């Protein structure tokens, strides 16, 4: 049976070159290993696979899916870890992108995760095939373009939506825009939507071999260095980057912020509510340049954010917010309203 390839395989050649599938003992498993699993159980809303193109495809009991072993620690949805697999070899699709692990804690508001049974590792010449094998490890290139960094108080705080609005405004100024998701759990949908908003180049941590950024700090730092080098080499004028989830969660968001500290031209905090803004400000001792997300949904929320923090908040979904957003971009990135195409901001 021909398997469904999930979007974590988009960096690989599994759909172009033949491979074998064979079970390996658990002591030989590792994060980023490509594995083949059989779909089991009654199909529900989450019995879907995000394909390498980003398109969603429904799957059914008995279908085969290829994804990568990994870990997730989502505050609002689910927690899982491939290392918690038991003797029955039952796993779950922790995201539709093919992040595969054993679910250990799931929100009661979430439909049942897609259940999978491990069939074996993807092998070539009796050696397992991993995400890292498809990533170049070149000489680091320093990031020298202005950076708009979006962080959040939690997942689903409006980071990607705000990022799309910012990308769209920058692109309208005649700039070459790179957009990236630096931390989180694999979903191609997010960075594709930034491309839809006008970004010329899109990147995420899957490009450098990570199915999620729940991993040791040293491993993440090495991958982040390679990711930033790719971005620095693409020829963009400005980078809009999102640190998925919250910097306080175990996705290495705080590490990304520390690495990028000297490159940040504008820090945008997307908050679930006005009081959550205070928590992130207190944790990092850093004042953002702009508050977005549900904490800025209404005029009352915007007034409360300003009262509690003294930071400007904007609902970027509103047309009348664009003038002030452009003013902030002018100020923080050193842009001019009359930019000519090809102008490179300082």
Notes on the protein architecture:
There is one protein chain. The protein has 346 residues and is α/β, with parallel strands linked by helices. The chain has two domains: 4-134, no CATH class; 147-333, Rossmann fold. It has seven helices and 18 strands. It has helices at 159-171, 188-196, 217-232, 253-260, 274-284, 299-309, 322-333; strands at residues 4-5, 20-22, 34-40, 48-50, 56-58, 64-69, 71-73, 78-81, 90-95, 99-106, 115-124, 127-128, 147-152, 177-183, 201-204, 238-243, 264-270, 290-292. A six-stranded parallel β-sheet has the order 15-14-16-13-17-18, with helices on both faces. α1 (159-171) runs parallel beside α2. The longest helix has 16 residues, at 217-232. It is globular, with a radius of gyration of 21 Å. Mean pLDDT is 92; it is low at 337-343.
Secondary-structure map with pairings?
Layout: E1 4-5, E2 20-22, E3 34-40, E4 48-50, E5 56-58, E6 64-69, E7 71-73, E8 78-81, E9 90-95, E10 99-106, E11 115-124, E12 127-128, E13 147-152, H1 159-171, E14 177-183, H2 188-196, E15 201-204, H3 217-232, E16 238-243, H4 253-260, E17 264-270, H5 274-284, E18 290-292, H6 299-309, H7 322-333
Parallel strand pairs: 1-6, 6-10, 13-16, 13-17, 14-15, 14-16, 17-18
Antiparallel strand pairs: 2-11, 3-6, 3-11, 4-5, 7-8, 8-10, 9-10, 9-11, 11-12
Helix pairs in contact: 1-2, 5-6
Question: Summed up, what is this model?
Answer:
With 346 residues, the chain is of the alpha/beta class.
